[in-house]
Amino acid sequence: MLSFVFWVLLLAAFLFWPVSNLVWTLAVRRKQRRLKQELDERELAAQKRRARFIAVFLCLLFSLVYNLSRLGLPSSG
Q1: Is residue 77 part of a domain?
Q2: Could you give the CA distance from residue 35 to residue 26 in angstroms, rounded to a whole number?
Q3: Helix, strand, or coil here: 57?
Q4: Domain-located, residue 13
Q5: What SS3 class is residue 31?
Protein backbone atom coordinates (compact mmCIF):
# COMPACT_ATOMS: atom_id res chain seq x y z
CA MET A 1 0.00 0.00 0.00
CA LEU A 2 2.81 2.39 0.88
CA SER A 3 4.58 1.83 -2.43
CA PHE A 4 1.34 2.49 -4.32
CA VAL A 5 0.91 5.83 -2.54
CA PHE A 6 4.57 6.62 -3.22
CA TRP A 7 4.18 6.04 -6.98
CA VAL A 8 0.94 8.05 -7.12
CA LEU A 9 2.55 11.02 -5.35
CA LEU A 10 5.76 10.76 -7.37
CA LEU A 11 3.95 10.82 -10.71
CA ALA A 12 1.70 13.66 -9.54
CA ALA A 13 4.76 15.66 -8.47
CA PHE A 14 6.45 15.17 -11.84
CA LEU A 15 3.30 16.20 -13.69
CA PHE A 16 2.49 19.24 -11.57
CA TRP A 17 4.76 21.85 -13.20
CA PRO A 18 3.90 21.17 -16.88
CA VAL A 19 0.19 20.75 -16.15
CA SER A 20 -0.01 23.96 -14.12
CA ASN A 21 1.79 25.88 -16.88
CA LEU A 22 -0.54 24.44 -19.51
CA VAL A 23 -3.67 25.30 -17.50
CA TRP A 24 -2.29 28.79 -16.80
CA THR A 25 -1.47 29.46 -20.46
CA LEU A 26 -4.90 28.34 -21.65
CA ALA A 27 -6.67 30.38 -18.96
CA VAL A 28 -4.66 33.56 -19.67
CA ARG A 29 -5.18 33.31 -23.42
CA ARG A 30 -8.90 32.72 -22.99
CA LYS A 31 -9.25 35.69 -20.64
CA GLN A 32 -7.19 37.98 -22.91
CA ARG A 33 -9.30 36.98 -25.90
CA ARG A 34 -12.51 37.59 -23.97
CA LEU A 35 -11.40 41.00 -22.60
CA LYS A 36 -9.53 41.95 -25.82
CA GLN A 37 -6.60 43.34 -23.82
CA GLU A 38 -3.44 42.24 -22.02
CA LEU A 39 -3.74 41.23 -18.37
CA ASP A 40 -1.92 43.13 -15.65
CA GLU A 41 0.42 41.52 -13.09
CA ARG A 42 -2.32 41.14 -10.46
CA GLU A 43 -4.59 39.26 -12.87
CA LEU A 44 -1.70 37.06 -14.08
CA ALA A 45 -0.85 36.14 -10.48
CA ALA A 46 -4.49 35.30 -9.77
CA GLN A 47 -4.62 33.07 -12.85
CA LYS A 48 -1.38 31.37 -11.75
CA ARG A 49 -2.84 30.56 -8.29
CA ARG A 50 -6.01 29.23 -9.91
CA ALA A 51 -4.03 27.10 -12.37
CA ARG A 52 -1.93 25.60 -9.58
CA PHE A 53 -5.04 24.76 -7.58
CA ILE A 54 -6.62 23.03 -10.59
CA ALA A 55 -3.35 21.26 -11.49
CA VAL A 56 -3.10 19.63 -8.05
CA PHE A 57 -6.42 17.88 -8.54
CA LEU A 58 -5.79 16.98 -12.18
CA CYS A 59 -2.37 15.51 -11.45
CA LEU A 60 -3.52 13.50 -8.43
CA LEU A 61 -6.54 12.16 -10.29
CA PHE A 62 -4.57 11.20 -13.40
CA SER A 63 -1.78 9.66 -11.32
CA LEU A 64 -4.24 7.62 -9.29
CA VAL A 65 -6.07 6.32 -12.37
CA TYR A 66 -2.82 5.58 -14.21
CA ASN A 67 -1.30 3.70 -11.27
CA LEU A 68 -4.51 1.76 -10.72
CA SER A 69 -4.40 0.62 -14.34
CA ARG A 70 -0.67 -0.25 -14.21
CA LEU A 71 -0.31 -1.66 -10.68
CA GLY A 72 -3.86 -2.67 -9.82
CA LEU A 73 -5.59 -2.10 -6.52
CA PRO A 74 -3.17 -2.05 -3.61
CA SER A 75 -3.45 -4.98 -1.22
CA SER A 76 -2.72 -4.88 2.46
CA GLY A 77 -0.64 -8.05 2.44
Answers
A1: no
A2: 14
A3: helix
A4: yes
A5: helix
Domain contains 26: yes
In tens, the pLDDT along 16-67 reads: 999 999 999 999 999 999 999 999 999 999 999 999 999 999 999 999 999 9
- Residue 28: CB atoms within 10 Å: 17
This prediction's pTM: 0.83
DSSP 8-state secondary structure symbol assigned to residue 73: S
For residues 8 and 63, the answer to whether their CB atoms sit within 8 Å is: yes
- Separation between Cα atoms, residue 20 and residue 34, nearest integer Å: 21
Domain of residue 28 covers 2-71
CA distance 61 to 3: 17
- Specify the number of domains making up the chain: 1
